[in-house]
């Protein structure tokens, strides 16, 4: 985002245009001019044309809020009243304004409904305010701009490690080589850095301020979701003749990427909703949990029961008189069948669960951004996770060097270092500047010495090949003691950093430095290495053949300046290098062994070229590059003429460091019955290695790599081949996935859902969200998406439960998620402990609230039946409100603190989580059991009171209501599995409140009667009869058919 400058506002009075360079650009939620709606269209951005300042930009802001100021109250009320029972109670309360339907005071209906809505509105308001504050923090970043009087602030300065705030065209860089690197893992999930090139004619300008002096324009395509392609032109009009350059993806700086090298200047092209990253994300939506939908379904069943009971009552009156009014009165009389307190109890429970999650010291930094769906965490069947930054740290470590007969691991790298040292201590520079070998004086070398020298030579050749075959550039920065120029001249180690398109490359070069051969300098045509003896070896770069996704290898031809030798080095994946190197009997086996350890394996080879041989190759290579037809094919053919019978030097194994405890966390999730899918934008080989390394794919599982398909017939054949595999993990690329989903969506999803693990590589953000949506539609199971980057936002928002990992690469994913964690390993406890507890507690709470309401409704039904089906309420006024509030609310609500097993046991036995996936804690079976319990207890209490009362009706009220309160308190005690001190306090406090309030209830209860012994024994007998059988049944069930968790409680 950037500040909105008035269209004609002058900038500060600078002495020269360059003085504007340091103008600070405030981003505190200030936006550029809003643009109107309509279809996206191609655009022209005018530079140096004050008369053409009509570009309009959407607001460039991150917004994860569900509502705005105007839609908040209508939106919250709509989301509440679309629940059946909330709408029902609204109609119920409104009916009390009609005199013929009124059964009691208005406050008995409107106060509970108002309280429920107030709690909901306050909770949503707090979450929206928190979301606004978090978004504001991100939107309040500061950038520098380049502007002049009368011109809009289109030019932005972005420094190293700063995130690009808008989609821009790259105009200038401070780097000497005229290019810069971008980190794009938050946009496309790829770990490789991307090389970007500025517009040539603007890069040639003497200073950045000269951008304000030229007249030019950028023509760009309409905004779209394609993050890998761009079409545009840059035209400079004030040159003779006008200069026009084509613009491609190499000239762009997309929002969300990070500048990895130097300082760049760019011109803003797209902003706000037109950003590539934003167009690949979906709008935040208000998620409704499956648990809430199930409770809503149960209330519809209760409403059906309410209607049936009311019709039966009127039918037993033979539909006499104004029977239709009687039906309505009975509907109002039995309205307690649907508990109005259910929604508020569940909402308050969610707040408690969120508070408990935030306070858990074992998962510090966890934030609950959506407190409406904590129960979802307890029923996840599919976990879809990003790779880069979520499972891995994106930090490569060199782990293995294999020479065929010997392998060096981390614990034996000192041997490699000694071999390199021994080679370079035998050489010294001669007086003429060349390097000559000075052999040690010895008589009759022993066999051991010969073997040692042979091994040293092999290690040296391998290390030198790794130190030369790459695209890494050493860059020197000031460290506060040595300035940049001096550091570059002296090759100062403390000031040197490596830049490359891939972190793998940097890891290899850092390793060669650690063993003694250091890359100290590089430009377009030369490279310098420093030996352990501080000698500088100079090499001329003759040709570079970069790595491509299709070729899976890279090569370089260098000339050693000291000897004139020309060498062709190449490294690549084993599948392509096996046919290039000379025959050997160990390559395939060792590559397989290293791959099974989760290492990224590269095969390194070399070939010495004579001068004539190279000159012949160069002539053919240049001729092929000048070809107009089939250029790429001809170039590849010429290069392949060199790629024959190359000498195999070594294998390298690099590991992408996993986040802490990723393996045990994935193992826990797998044992809990959760299937894990990895969706990444990274390359197939990288994704496969990470899946093995993280044990997402177990050692005894086969991997089926779905080959690249482009049409329906190829997809059909490959799906048939995959169908014949059993218990095997699937690895598929985004392109093949798109073809399969286009023609065989149902068949592919059916097969994929049977796999123990699925890895989707080269996935776009839109594809990630599509996969989540298909899983929900095809399986009906709950999904959880985990990611850390902007490219994961769509997936997170589409899933039933989105979890954002707050990492080094920004907070975009964590801001858009329902839950935010700091490390992937915290996900295990979030699901196994908090998710499980939240679901089981809400299930118990909802069923108990329903039981509480059904009990009093059953008593009302019995009372009306005995007294000739009269529509007269048994309890009126404060009794009916107090029953579900101060008398029973605290004990019932204390169920949100209950737990069946300790958190350590839940983590140790993730199989306990698997029981929840079937939804047994809240099912039609458990609901029916609670309904039968309610009918039994309500009937027992009412009939007992009718049988035992003596003369006055008020005694029936006293006996039955007191027995009802005691029964509810005892039933809470029966339901609790692990007592908490607050539960005991709640029980005693509720009982004390009831006893104390009897003094003020003389209108409904005979105070003198309740002080008699007769009242006490009658209440005791009724309560005992209603509760004792249930206690006996609970004991017998635990004795002869205990639940799985009860075996672990001890």
From TrEMBL:
Task: List ligand-binding residues for ATP.
Answer: 386-388, 505, 547, 571, 600, 680-682, 762, 768, 791-792
Where is each P-type ATPase C-terminal domain found? Answer: 815-1042
Major location (coarse): Golgi
Compartments where located:
Golgi apparatus, trans-Golgi network membrane; Membrane
Q: Which GO terms describe its cellular component?
A: endosome; plasma membrane; trans-Golgi network
Please write the reaction equations for the catalytic activity of this protein: ATP + H2O + phospholipidSide 1 = ADP + phosphate + phospholipidSide 2
The residues the entry assigns to the signal sequence are none
UniProt membrane topology term = Multi-pass membrane protein
| Sequence positions that bind Mg(2+) | 386, 388, 788, 792
The prosthetic group or cofactor this protein requires is: Mg(2+)
Enzyme nomenclature, EC number: 7.6.2.1
This protein's UniProt keywords: ATP-binding, Golgi apparatus, Lipid transport, Magnesium, Membrane, Metal-binding, Nucleotide-binding, Translocase, Transmembrane, Transmembrane helix, Transport
Q: Which terms in the Gene Ontology molecular function aspect does this entry carry?
A: ATP binding; ATP hydrolysis activity; ATPase-coupled intramembrane lipid transporter activity; magnesium ion binding
Q: Where are the transmembrane segments?
A: 293-317, 323-342, 849-869, 875-897, 927-947, 953-974, 981-1001, 1007-1033
Residues annotated as the enzyme's active site: 386
Q: What class of enzyme is it?
A: translocase
- InterPro entries, sorted: ATPase_P-typ_cyto_dom_N, ATPase_P-typ_P_site, ATPase_P-typ_TM_dom_sf, ATPase_P-typ_transduc_dom_A_sf, HAD-like_sf, HAD_sf, P-type_ATPase_IV, P-type_ATPase_N
Q: Which family does it belong to?
A: Belongs to the cation transport ATPase (P-type) (TC 3.A.3) family. Type IV subfamily.
Q: Which NCBIfam families match?
A: ATPase-Plipid (TIGR01652), ATPase_P-type (TIGR01494)
Q: What is this protein called?
A: Phospholipid-transporting ATPase
Q: Which organism is it from?
A: Canis lupus dingo (dingo)
Q: Gene name?
A: ATP9A
């Amino acid at each position: 985002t950037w500040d909105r400058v008035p269209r004609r506002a002058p900038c500060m009075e600078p002495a020269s245009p360059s003085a504007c360079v340091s103008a600070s650009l405030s981003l505190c939620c200030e936006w550029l001019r809003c643009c109107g709606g309509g279809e996206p269209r191609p655009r022209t951005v005018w530079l140096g044309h004050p008369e053409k300042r009509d570009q309009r930009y959407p607001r460039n802001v991150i917004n994860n809020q569900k509502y705005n100021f105007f839609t908040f109250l209508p939106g919250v009320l709509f989301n509440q009243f679309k629940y059946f029972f909330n709408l029902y109670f609204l109609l119920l309360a409104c009916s009390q304004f009609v005199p013929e339907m009124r059964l009691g005071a208005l406050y008995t209906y409107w106060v509970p409904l108002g309280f429920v809505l107030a709690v909901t509105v306050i909770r949503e308001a707090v979450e929206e305010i928190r979301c606004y504050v978090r978004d504001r923090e991100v939107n309040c970043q500061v950038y520098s701009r380049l502007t002049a009087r009368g011109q809009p602030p289109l030019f932005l300065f972005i420094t190293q490690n700063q995130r690009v705030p808008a989609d821009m065209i790259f105009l200038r860089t401070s780097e000497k080589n005229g290019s810069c690197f971008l980190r794009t893992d938050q946009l496309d999930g790829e770990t490789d850095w991307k090389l970007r090139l500025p517009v040539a004619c603007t890069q040639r300008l003497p200073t950045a301020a000269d951008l304000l002096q030229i007249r030019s324009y950028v023509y760009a395509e309409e905004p779209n979701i394609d993050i890998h392609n761009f079409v545009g032109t840059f035209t400079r009009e004030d040159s003779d003749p006008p200069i026009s350059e084509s613009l491609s993806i190499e000239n762009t700086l997309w929002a969300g990427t990070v500048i990895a090298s130097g300082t760049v200047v760019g011109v803003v092209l797209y902003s706000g909703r037109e950003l590539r990253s934003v167009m690949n994300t979906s709008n935040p939506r208000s998620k409704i949990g499956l648990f809430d939908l199930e409770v809503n379904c149960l209330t519809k069943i209760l409403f059906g029961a309410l209607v049936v009971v009311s019709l039966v009552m009127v039918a037993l009156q033979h539909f006499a008189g104004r029977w239709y009014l009687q039906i309505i009165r009975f509907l109002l009389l039995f309205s307690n069948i649907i508990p109005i307190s259910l929604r508020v109890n569940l909402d308050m429970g969610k707040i408690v669960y969120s508070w408990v999650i935030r306070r858990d010291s074992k998962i510090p930094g966890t934030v609950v951004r959506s407190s409406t769906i904590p129960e979802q965490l307890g029923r996840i069947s599919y976990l879809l996770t990003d790779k880069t930054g979520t499972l891995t740290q994106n930090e490569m470590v060199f782990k293995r060097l294999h020479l065929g007969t010997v392998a060096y691991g981390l614990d034996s790298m000192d041997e490699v270092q000694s071999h390199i040292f021994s080679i370079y201590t035998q050489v010294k520079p001669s007086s003429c500047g060349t390097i000559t070998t000075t052999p040690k004086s010895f008589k009759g070398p022993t066999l051991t010495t010969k073997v040692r020298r042979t091994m040293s030579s092999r290690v040296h050749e391998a290390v030198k090949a790794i130190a030369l075959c790459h695209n890494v550039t050493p860059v020197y920065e000031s460290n506060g003691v040595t300035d940049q120029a001096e550091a570059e001249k002296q090759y100062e180690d403390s000031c040197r950093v490596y830049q490359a398109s891939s972190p793998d490359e940097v890891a290899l070069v850092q390793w060669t430095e650690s063993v003694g051969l250091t890359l100290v300098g590089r430009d377009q045509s030369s490279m310098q290495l420093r030996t352990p003896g501080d000698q500088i070896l100079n090499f001329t770069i003759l040709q570079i053949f970069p790595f491509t996704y299709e070729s899976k290898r890279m090569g370089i031809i260098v000339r050693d300046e000291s000897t004139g030798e020309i060498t062709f080095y190449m490294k690549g994946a084993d599948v392509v290098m096996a046919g290039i190197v000379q025959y050997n009997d160990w390559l395939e086996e060792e590559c397989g062994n290293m791959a099974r350890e989760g290492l990224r394996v590269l095969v390194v080879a070399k070939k010495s070229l004579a001068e004539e041989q190279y000159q012949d190759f160069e002539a053919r290579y240049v001729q092929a590059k000048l070809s107009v037809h089939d250029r790429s094919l001809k170039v590849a053919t010429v290069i392949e003429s060199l790629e024959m019978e190359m000498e195999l030097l070594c294998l390298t194994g690099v590991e992408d460091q996993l986040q802490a405890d990723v393996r045990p966390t994935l193992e826990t999730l797998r044992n809990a019955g959760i299937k894990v899918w990895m969706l990444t934008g990274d390359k197939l080989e990288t994704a496969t290695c990470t899946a093995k390394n993280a044990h997402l794919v177990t050692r005894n599982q086969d991997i089926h790599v779905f080959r690249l398909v482009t049409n329906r017939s190829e997809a059909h054949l490959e799906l048939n081949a995959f169908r014949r595999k059993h218990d095997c993990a699937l690895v598929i690329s985004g392109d093949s996935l798109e073809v399969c989903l286009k023609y065989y969506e149902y068949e592919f999803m059916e097969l994929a859902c049977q796999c123990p693990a699925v890895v989707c590589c080269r996935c776009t953000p839109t594809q990630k969200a599509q996969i989540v949506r298909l899983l929900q539609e095809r399986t009906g199971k709950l999904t959880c998406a985990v990611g850390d980057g902007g490219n994961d936002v769509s997936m997170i928002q589409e899933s039933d439960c989105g979890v954002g990992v707050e990492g080094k690469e920004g907070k975009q994913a964590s801001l858009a998620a329902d839950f935010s964690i700091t490390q992937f390993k915290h996900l295990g406890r979030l699901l196994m402990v908090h998710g499980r507890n939240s679901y089981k507690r809400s299930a118990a709470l909802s069923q108990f609230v329903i039981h509480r309401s059904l009990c009093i409704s059953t008593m009302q039904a019995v009372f009306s039946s005995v007294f000739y089906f009269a529509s007269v309420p048994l309890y009126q006024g404060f009794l009916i409100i107090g029953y579900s509030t101060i008398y029973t609310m605290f004990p019932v609500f204390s169920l949100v603190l209950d737990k069946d097993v300790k958190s350590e046991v839940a983590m140790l036995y993730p199989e306990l989580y698997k029981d929840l996936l079937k939804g047994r804690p809240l099912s039609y079976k458990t609901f029916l059991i609670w309904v039968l319990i309610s009918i039994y207890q309500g009937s027992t209490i009412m009939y007992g009171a009718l049988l035992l009362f003596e003369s006055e009706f008020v005694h029936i009220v006293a006996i039955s209501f007191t027995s009802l309160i005691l029964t509810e308190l005892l039933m809470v005690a029966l339901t609790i599995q692990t007592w908490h001190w607050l539960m005991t306090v709640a029980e005693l406090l509720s009982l004390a409140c009831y006893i104390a309030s009897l003094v003020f209830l003389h209108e409904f209860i005979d105070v003198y009667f309740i002080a008699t012994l007769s009242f006490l024994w009658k209440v005791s007998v009724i309560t005992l009869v209603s509760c004792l059988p249930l206690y006996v049944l609970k004991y017998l069930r635990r004795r002869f058919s205990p639940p799985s968790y009860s075996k672990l409680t001890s």
